[in-house]
Amino acid sequence: MIHEKRVNIGIAGFGMSAKTFHLPFLTLDPRFQVKKIFERQKSNHAEQQFPETTSVHEFEALLTDEIDLVVITTLNQTHYDFCKRAILAGKM
């Protein structure tokens, strides 16, 4: 049996899109492991609802070596900046 490396994911944003679409599907797929969730507010709601993840409060925390892929679920006007930073950090 071939063991493939799981794709470690960082999620930018913890609004309706992340909670109702992205996170439920990503956490059910064994090929992916959601490691970090960036939320602006320091409430750590993401970590409380998804205890296998770590809440972070700076986008740069998603650009660490342990993260392979960043999923952007923030407001539309932030997509360009966050996507550019993720691509430049090699998070495809």
TrEMBL record:
Protein keywords: Oxidoreductase
This protein's record includes keyword Oxidoreductase: yes
Pfam families: GFO_IDH_MocA
Enzyme class name: oxidoreductase
MF (Gene Ontology): nucleotide binding; oxidoreductase activity
Domain Gfo/Idh/MocA-like oxidoreductase N-terminal: 7-91
Enzyme Commission number: 1.-.-.-
InterPro entries: Gfo/Idh/MocA-like_OxRdtase_N, Gfo/Idh/MocA_oxidoreduct, NAD(P)-bd_dom_sf
Gene3D superfamilies named among the record's database cross-references: NAD(P)-binding Rossmann-like Domain
PANTHER family associated with the record: CONSERVED EXPRESSED OXIDOREDUCTASE (EUROFUNG), CONSERVED EXPRESSED OXIDOREDUCTASE (EUROFUNG)-RELATED
UniProt record similarity statement: Belongs to the Gfo/Idh/MocA family.
Protein name stated in the entry: Oxidoreductase
